[in-house]
């Protein structure tokens, strides 16, 4: 490869890695802050700003950068810059697609998936360590929510028992602070963990491109740019994902929020301590579900959760498919033109997804609106009470509801209907 | 290669249940110890004999009377453990233990 091509490729990989870092922050804001936003412990803008600052700080806190990509999952010998670029594009595109649908899915799994796909396209099945794929990606995606549901469920149940009879304004005031504290810890953990991944990719790319010696530490500009990219992404806030996590799964109060975030922080930190890495996103989602399972009387929308589990299982093959297509495009055009083609494709696809998102924008103004599972009935969350939640907190909308049947069904479960049925409810 | 590392998983689950559920519970207990004497019309506070504060009868709902020293000490102990756990988590993060 001639020097010009190599320099260009290196620059594009660095830019793409920063773009992935951006989508990572963007996509994962909700893991830490969705519950605080949903319970109004923090104003939406304040929450994402706090999370952004903590991600920024977290990126500087720990300098133990793992300069490996998809270690134990693909054969390290076959990772070249074109493969890395294709893998990054796969990860970014899948992150954006899941964001468009408001699905919290693991950014690291998307990256790994893109990398696996690119390796498959580059050298075939021999480059992928399938045991590693199963043990490090697929099985943890199944286990993480189960562990988190158990922990958050027990925590929420204990909290609900212990605060029964305590006036709600007292619990709200206390748990609001508890919730902010635990959510901050999750944000910080995210910053320390996930910014390192992009730093590692850029460092590897620099080493492969000969820009820095092989035993080099991470240059300061790499740390700074990764930290900033993630913080900016976090601040812009993946409002769609925040909305799903905060409002879509469970109607949450401050006690549930505090229990869920503490569970997330504890499981994330403990799992990395015991060397059993679980995805932040999967743990956070499981914790929110658990806070609904553990709260007496609370409703969990398992249909929303089911869509998420499907997305988690699909993440690896879907991101892999994009990664493989990109690598195929890259190598069939070849050289500089191929690299540029992939990069242009990334920009076009990202712009298309962004335009699609503008048709139904979700931002800080409407992130907390009542969840509308099936179009037709807007659900009115019943105000949380002290102690046990009273009755059904959110009426489920029957999946088979038709125009004629929706009114009695909706009225029966105590929801307020859509404007098209103004007589029902209240 | 083991598909699931049961040992590590078990450790995560047990420690997670103790820490991840215990901290919110301690926090709730601390709040309850601080706030439990607020009102006479909370029926489920039968397990709290410390209700007999001097000004308890006059303070109806919102005014929070000072909790007894024992309750205050208990609440401080609970909150202390919670704060300690958060500090430990921070140290863990800063030391790059992940």
UniProtKB/TrEMBL annotation, chain A:
One of its GO terms (molecular function) is phosphate transmembrane transporter activity. Keywords: Membrane, Phosphate transport, Transmembrane, Transmembrane helix, Transport. PANTHER family: LOW-AFFINITY INORGANIC PHOSPHATE TRANSPORTER-RELATED, PHOSPHATE TRANSPORTER. This is Phosphate transporter. It is found in: Membrane. The keyword Transmembrane applies. The keyword Membrane applies. GO terms for biological process: phosphate ion transmembrane transport. Signal peptide: none annotated. One of its GO terms (cellular component) is membrane. The chain crosses the membrane at residues 48-69, 76-97, 109-130, 137-160, 218-237, 309-330, 336-356. Belongs to the inorganic phosphate transporter (PiT) (TC 2.A.20) family. It is a multi-pass membrane protein. It holds the Pfam family PHO4.
UniProtKB/TrEMBL annotation, chain B:
Residues 39-49 have a biased composition (Polar residues). It comes from the Bacteria. This is Uncharacterized protein. Keywords: Membrane, Transmembrane, Transmembrane helix. The chain crosses the membrane at residues 12-35, 72-94. Residues 39-58 are annotated as: Disordered.
